[in-house]
């Protein structure tokens, strides 16, 4: 299996009025095609910065970002993104919000074909019949489902999720996790998920990467071998509980609350 995403020895600093702010320090990350990489790390360590580098919205000071065998040197059409705040446009219906990326990246696609593609995704995430609604008429969980549809509508190779479930209540969040597994079963994309929720990382990820405190480097990588889609009960198995404890310990190291000598790649 080849790696669809490769981050090689990436170092980056923001230029601020107080001088350079080092954010990433020799970061390494590899995600195989159709893989799902969950990234966890202390607040402010550089996770969102990493997503911007993968999307080609920014370029690192040192090191390289590769997508599908090409070095990233411009913004990528083949990337879909979803964030904690779904940012849907209120003056458009849900349908017209979801088809928006197609209007931009596939202007020659017929309106009918665009709507068909959006309808199929709406059905997949359990929002059949909601295309005519406005964003404000949907619950937070429904808006996040619509946002996932929008990020996937143009069949991106790479899906970047920056804490998309962070603002949802625990039960809605678990429903959305299961929807993510369904989307993975039906569609083809390689995912980088930023999350603060260790259970989410273990339930969704094929690998969980723990970043160190800022400037972030890859502190720890855990493979999650359980086949997908996964039953939610998987989280209560002894093996998962042990993984969660290990990840929690790694986060404490990243936060400087536990001694670093136990950190291992
Ligand atoms: N455009 C920018 N200019 C200067 N500093 C920035 C910029 N964007 C982010 N930073 C700083 O870089 C650091 C990393 O930011 P980033 O948003 O990548 O962190 P994060 O890991 O996503 O945090 P969180 O978990 O809180 O979302 C922070 O200290 C932030 O203040
Ligand atoms: Mg962030």
In order across it, which strands form the biggest sheet? 6-7-8-3-9-10
Q: Portion of residues in helices?
A: 25-40%
CATH class of the domain at 1-76 and 191-265: Alpha Beta
Show unreliable segments: none
Distance between the termini: 21 Å
Please give the CATH architecture of the domain at 1-76 and 191-265: 3-Layer(aba) Sandwich
Shape: globular
Structural class: alpha/beta
Gyration radius from CA atoms, angstroms: 19 Å
- Specify the biggest β-sheet: 6 strands, mixed
Residue fraction in strands: 25-35%
H/E element sequence: EEEHEEEHHHEHEHEEH
- Overall pLDDT metric: 94
CATH superfamily of the domain at 1-76 and 191-265: P-loop containing nucleotide triphosphate hydrolases
Write up what this structure looks like:
- The chain is an alpha/beta fold and about 260 residues long.
- It has a domain at about 1-75 and about 190-265: P-loop containing nucleotide triphosphate hydrolases (Rossmann fold, 3-Layer(aba) Sandwich), CATH 3.40.50.
- The chain has helices at about 45-55, 95-105, 110-125, 140-150, 170-185, 200-205, 240-255; strands at about 5-15, 20-30, 35-40, 60-65, 70, 80-85, 160, 190-195, 205-210, 220-225.
- The strands form two sheets. A six-stranded mixed sheet has the order 6-7-8-3-9-10, sandwiched between helices.
- Helix 2 crosses helix 3 and helix 2 (about 95-105) runs parallel beside helix 4 (about 140-150).
- The two termini are about 20 Å apart.
- The model has no long low-confidence stretch (mean pLDDT about 95).
- The chain binds adenosine-5'-triphosphate (ATP) and magnesium ion.
- Adenosine-5'-triphosphate binds near residues 21, 23 and 44.
């Amino acid at each position: 299996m080849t790696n669809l995403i490769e981050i090689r020895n990436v170092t980056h600093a923001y230029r601020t009025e107080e001088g350079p702010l080092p954010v990433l320090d020799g970061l390494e990350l590899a995600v195989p095609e159709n893989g799902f990489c969950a990234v966890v790390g202390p607040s402010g360590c550089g996770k969102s910065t990493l997503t911007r580098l993968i999307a080609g919205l920014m370029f690192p000071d040192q090191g390289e970002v590769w997508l599908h065998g090409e070095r990233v040197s411009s913004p990528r059409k083949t990337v879909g993104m979803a964030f904690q705040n779904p940012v849907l446009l209120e003056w458009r219906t849900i349908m017209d919000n979801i088809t928006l990326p197609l209007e931009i990246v596939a202007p020659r696609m017929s309106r009918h074909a665009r709507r068909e593609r959006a309808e199929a995704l709406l059905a997949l995430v359990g929002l059949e019949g909601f295309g005519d609604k406005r964003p404000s008429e949907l619950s937070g969980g429904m808006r996040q489902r619509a946002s996932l549809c929008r990020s996937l509508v143009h069949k991106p190779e790479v899906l970047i999720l920056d804490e998309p479930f962070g603002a949802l209540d625990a039960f809605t969040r678990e429903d959305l996790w299961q929807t993510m597994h369904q989307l993975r079963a039906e569609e083809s994309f390689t995912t980088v998920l930023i999350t603060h929720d260790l259970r989410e990382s273990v339930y969704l990820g094929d690998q969980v990467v723990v970043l160190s405190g800022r400037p972030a480097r890859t502190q720890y990588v855990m493979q999650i071998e359980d086949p997908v889609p996964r039953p939610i009960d998987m989280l209560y198995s002894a093996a998962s509980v042990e993984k969660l404890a290990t990840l929690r310990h790694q986060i404490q190291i990243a936060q400087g609350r536990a001694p670093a000598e136990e950190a291992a790649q």
